[in-house]
Amino acid sequence: MIQREDQGKLLQRAEEFMQVFKKGADFTQELMRENEKLRYRLVQLEEQSRLASCAGQALREVEMLKARIVDLEREKNEILQRIKLVESENIDFANRYVEIEAENNSLARLYIATYQLHATLDFREVLKIISEIIINLIGGEEFAIFLLDENTGTLQAMAGEGVVVQDLPVFALGQGVPGMVAREGESFFSETLDGLEPEKPLACIPLKIKNRVIGVLAVYRLFIQKRRFAEIDHELFTLLAGHAATAIFASKLYCESERKLTTIQGFLDLLTK
């Protein structure tokens, strides 16, 4: 009986040991499973950390690229502004070159015209050449040349184009724009280039020899439609007026001397007969 009891106890203990061993084995397996989960989770966390680090690096690179793009955009705008400035300067230079070419051509034509003007002493021919210069060089469509009669102190039209010279009024000194220009000796240029009356020409330039006014040049209409007179127009008018005054004065002196010479020669012929 005692042996049986001992055997029963041994079996019971063995069974309890097996249960404890089984529980230990189950616990070990559970620990292994938890350990595997933890290792997997650790790998996930490491991967997430690596990805987060890569993402942070990528974000930093993106920010750097954005800053670089902003710098490049600013540099591009600066370059475009410089290009526009250079293009504007090139256009200004080109326009100025064209203006200078036009001025040089006008001055060359004026030089040739004035050479022709001073090559004759015939009064009527001088007035004709002056009219041709105004037409071809300045583009005058309607104009008149007034000369001052020092005996009466009046301006009388002696030649013109596009106007009936005989119908133009006689201006006293100080009367109308021509009379004012003759009295003051200063050029007049209208602010508007519309057709005006004989008393109000577009431009009126005194014909002067030093400070002595011998007449005026009055322009009423131009062939070329302009909004205003350019600086070159003022210079051409001034140059033309100076040469015209000299040529007219010289031709008048020559005509008067010719008449006096003819009179003296006739008187001498009468004396010698």
From TrEMBL:
Keyword Coiled coil included in the entry's annotation: yes
InterPro entries, per database record: GAF, GAF-like_dom_sf
Cited Gene3D superfamilies: 3.30.450.40
Limits of the GAF domain: 122-258
UniProt keyword terms in alphabetical order: Coiled coil
Pfam families for the chain: GAF_2
Stretches of the chain forming a coiled coil according to its record: 28-89
Keyword Acyltransferase: no
Protein name: Diguanylate phosphodiesterase
